[in-house]
Amino acid sequence: MVIEGYWYTNIGSRSENEDSCAYFSPGPDQYCAVICDGLGGHGGGKAASSIGVKALSQWQADEALPSGETILAWMNEANRNILATRANANQMKTTAVALYLYKNQAVWAHIGDSRLYHFHNGVLADYTEDHSLAQLSIKMGELHSRSEIPSFEGRSKLFRVIGDDEIKPQLHAPITLSPGDHAFLLCSDGLWERLLEDEIMLDLHKAATAEEWVYLLRCRAMMRKSTDVDNNTAIAIWIKE
């Protein structure tokens, strides 16, 4: 089994990049990827996302795949640190998505609207659902599909983030990766809001490497011209037999 990864982060048209990310291998057969998208402005968003990434990057060499309880504890640690750090007038908060791979096992968690997509043999097998007003509108039938989210007026309204008094991250049960090729994409809303999910899969089929996949996605996103481009960050991980 061969694993390759690639990441980038870009400020967009904003004055500061409030996204933070980490991609690393703490030990043999261990891989960790984390993206946090900070909210709050005036430096608060960047501080919050940095705190989130630090807390979710505590996996050490030779440790087993983190349990759901461990990941939840890391999320709560980030939350406590953000609440202790922020000034009274600065409501610094952050989204988070984190993936942990150990041998042929995977587990992930998220809160907010930073996303994870999992492809198996080139087909979308799983994905996270945003903790947002837009996603709720889909469940209520007011929107018909996730492709309508980028144009939804209340798209940026989130009801779960790190930095709330109480947090409710969503944990995905650990899975054993079935035989075949796997690809994971983690990204902040600054990237996915300018892409359709079919386009993400199309570029996966075109690409020869994880780096090329991210390059194609970035090129496609940049073709969607806008005067207001959010910070955008992605981590791609390919697992080839």
Lay out the secondary structure.
Blueprint: E1 2-10, E2 19-24, E3 30-39, H1 44-56, H2 68-85, E4 93-94, E5 96-102, E6 105-111, E7 115-120, E8 123-127, H3 133-139, E9 170-176, E10 182-187, H4 189-192, H5 197-206, H6 210-223, E11 232-240
Antiparallel strand pairs: 1-11, 2-3, 3-4, 3-5, 5-6, 6-9, 7-8, 7-10, 10-11
Helix pairs in contact: 1-2, 5-6
Structural class: alpha+beta
The overall number of domains is: 1
**Roughly what is the average pLDDT, rounded to an integer?**
93
Number of strands: 11
Largest sheet composition: 6 strands, antiparallel
First-to-last CA distance: 4 Å
For CATH, the homologous superfamily is named as PPM-type phosphatase domain
In CATH terms, what is the fold-level topology?
Phosphatase 2c, domain 1
CATH architecture: 4-Layer Sandwich
N to C succession of SSEs: EEEHHEEEEEHEEHHHE
Low-confidence stretches: none
Specify the helix fraction band.
Answer: 25-40%
CATH class: Alpha Beta
User: What's the overall geometry?
Assistant: globular
Determine Rg (CA atoms, Å).
Answer: 17 Å
What fraction of residues sit in β-strands?
Answer: 25-35%
How many helical elements? 6
